[in-house]
C-alpha cells in the first residue's frame, strides 16, 4: 500500500489524463450514462457557472487568449532560459527542466480532463432524434421538395419589414452586439419541452478580428474552457443569427454539428425576432435544397425572393473574397494555405471524436429537419 501511495505521489499529475482517457474510450459504450450523468449533470455543474461569469463581459476571452498566446509562451520560454542560465551546475539545470516538464505535463493533463467534461463527453450522449423522438428514416424526394418550398415561403414571410443593404441583401435591424444577445429567445421556448437545453450562457461574443478569421472559413466557435460562444461578425448579416444559435447549442451540451444546426433552426424559427426566424429558415433551405436533384432544385429556387437571392449572392461573394484563386502571388498562396490548414484541422478534430464523415456531418441536419416537418404534419 505504501508503495502504491509513493507511485501515486510521483505521477499524480497524470491522473486527470488517465480519467480523460477512460472517458474517451468507455463513454461511447454507455450513452445512457453519458446522457444522464455526464451531459445533464457534470457538464452543467462545471460550464453553467463558468458560462455565467464569462457572459458578464462583452469581449471574447477566447479571442483575447489567442492574441496573448504567442507573447505569453514567448515570455515563459524566456523566463525558463534565464532561470537555467542562472544555474551554476548541470544537476541544477536538470532540476529546473524536470520541474518545467512536470508543470507542462500537469497543465496538459488537466486540460484534457476539462475538455472531456466541458465538451468531449457530449459526443457520446444519446442521439438528439432519440431524446426528441424524431423519426429520421429516409423520406421521399417529393417530401423534401415540399419542405424546401415551405422553408422558402416562411423565409420570405419572416423577411417582411427587415432592412436591406444597397445591394438588396438583408441588414440586421440592431447592432451585432445587440443581435447576439437575442440568441436565447427561441431557446427559452424550447427549454420548456426539453429542459436539458437550459444554460446560463446569455451572451454570444462578437469576434473583433472577424475579418482575419474569415480566411479560415469558420463562422463560429465554441470554446469549452470558457463556455464561450464566439461568432464571426464579418459574414453576411443574414447568417449571424443562425450562427449564434448554432454555437449556443454547443453551450447547452450538444456536440454534433448537425444536431447544433437543427437546434439552431428550431430556436431561430421560435424566436421573437424576425431576423432570427429569417436566418433559421434560410439556413434550413440551404441544407435541404442541396439534397435535391437538379430539376427539383430549380423548382425550389424559383420561389426565392429577390432579397433571398441577394443574400445568397452576398454569401458567395464573402466566401470568394476570403478564398485562394490560384493566382500564384504570395498573398494568394498564404490564403490558400490558411484555407486548407483550417479545413483539415477542423475535419480532423471532428473525426477524432468518432464522427466518420468529419465536417460533412453538418449536412446531416437535413434528416432532422425532414423528421421535424413529418412529425409536425402528423
List the helices and strands and how they pair.
Blueprint: H1 2-11, H2 15-26, H3 31-55, H4 61-86, H5 90-118, H6 128-131, H7 141-158, H8 176-180, H9 185-193, E1 205-207, H10 210-213, E2 220-223, E3 228-232, H11 240-251, H12 257-269, H13 274-289, H14 294-301, H15 306-321, H16 330-352, H17 365-377
Parallel strand pairs: 1-3
Antiparallel strand pairs: 2-3
Helix pairs in contact: 2-5, 4-5, 7-13, 7-14, 9-12, 11-12, 12-13, 12-17
Describe the protein in words.
The chain is mostly helical. The protein has 17 helices and three strands. A hairpin with a 4-residue loop joins strand 2 and strand 3 (228-232). The longest helix is centred in the N-terminal third of the chain and has 29 residues, at 90-118. The protein is globular, with a radius of gyration of 24 Å.
Task: Name the features.
378 residues; 64% helix; three-stranded mixed beta sheet; globular; mainly alpha; 17 helices
Going by helix content, strand content and strand pairing, the class is mainly alpha
Low-confidence stretches: none
| Rg value | 24 Å
Question: Which percent range fits the helix content?
Answer: 55-70%
Order of helices and strands: HHHHHHHHHEHEEHHHHHHH
Give the beta-strand count. 3
Mean pLDDT: 90
The best one-word shape is: globular
What proportion strand? under 5%
What would you call the quaternary organization? single chain
Q: Helix tally?
A: 17
Largest sheet: 3 strands, mixed
